[in-house]
Design goal:
52% of the residues lie in helices and 5% in strands. The chain is mostly helical. It has a 3-stranded antiparallel beta sheet with strand order 1-2-3. A hairpin with a 3-residue loop joins β2 and β3. Belongs to the 'phage' integrase family.
Length: 291
């Protein structure tokens, strides 16, 4: 199944066709193909000869070799698609079970740290991109995919096309963020970096958007310059956006919509890191003195 060492077999082609037929995202297809290729390399024979016991032993092998819970579940999902859809043998997966992923509290920056981070992002383009990530609570892929036409100054919204889960939604556009985008647009147009109706944050070739890898490099470098010793990524700005809104008493269901979360419980995680709210709670210990 590995494209670098194995020819394009009919089985591999059928697997690729099945994923394309389901219109799976390119990143998802790549992950599923990698999962089946690694199983092929471990099994040392065609995966269509695998047994339920082979799959059980493979999960034990992955666990024993320290694969993380997230990676393990992604692998199981890819194999499940292959055996269910391509081979039509779902019973072979009966011994493979997803594992519970440990839930970690997200890292959140203070507003002062966010300001320092954006200020240390180097040029205007980078500063504006980080401002969008924080000011609208966007994922890094959503920032990179923005087009000039997605900015709606009349309705004060940003249109997010095909975000996570292949869903469109609208994100908030504050007056301060709009002014920052206008400043960047004027500078980029004057320098010939931005095409008509093109990407809001072009890459080295204006016909292409900036890459998510480049944006992550930008924020890591900015964190160093700003001397922020927390583990910072582009997603940290999204976490900080949600937490700061919660601390400002914005309804959690509104935050859920702004983030594009399917489940409220995902948004509710931020209640655990909203320190301003925690500080406002009066401990029962403090009321003992008045008794």
């Amino acid at each position: 199944m590995n494209s670098t060492t194995h020819p394009l077999s009919p089985l591999r082609q059928r697997f690729l066709d099945d994923m394309r037929m389901r219109k799976l995202a390119a990143k998802t297809q790549s992950g599923y193909l990698r999962a089946v290729s690694r199983f092929y390399d471990w099994l040392k024979r065609s995966p269509d000869t695998a047994t339920a016991e082979d799959l059980r032993r493979y999960q034990m092998y992955l666990v024993d070799h320290g694969m993380s819970s997230i990676s393990l579940n992604i692998t199981i999902t890819g194999l499940k698609f292959f055996f269910n859809s391509t081979l039509d043998q779902p019973e072979l997966m009966r011994h493979m079970h997803p594992v519970r992923e440990p839930r970690k509290i997200p890292i959140v920056l203070s507003q002062e740290e966010v300001a320092r981070l954006i200020g240390c992002a180097g040029n205007l383009k980078n500063q504006t991109a980080l401002s969008v990530a924080y000011g609208a609570g966007l994922r890094v892929s959503e920032v990179a995919a923005l087009k000039v036409s997605d900015v709606d100054s009349e309705r004060m919204t940003l249109r997010i096309e095909q975000g996570k889960g292949s869903k469109d939604r609208y994100a908030m556009l504050s007056p301060v963020l709009l002014e920052s985008l206008r400043t960047w647009w004027r500078a980029a147009r004057a320098s010939g970096w931005m095409l008509n109706g093109g990407w809001l944050f072009p890459g080295q070739d204006p016909a292409d958007p900036i890459s998510t890898r480049q944006l992550n490099r930008v924020i890591h470098e900015a964190a160093k310059v700003a001397q922020i010793d927390k583990r910072v990524s582009m997603h940290t700005l999204r976490h900080s956006f949600a937490t700061h809104l919660l601390e400002q008493k914005v309804d959690i269901r509104v935050i859920q919509v702004l983030l594009g979360h399917k489940k409220l419980e995902t948004t509710a995680l931020y209640t655990q890191v909203a320190t301003k709210i925690l500080r406002e709670v009066v401990s029962p210990l403090d009321s003992l003195n008045s008794m």
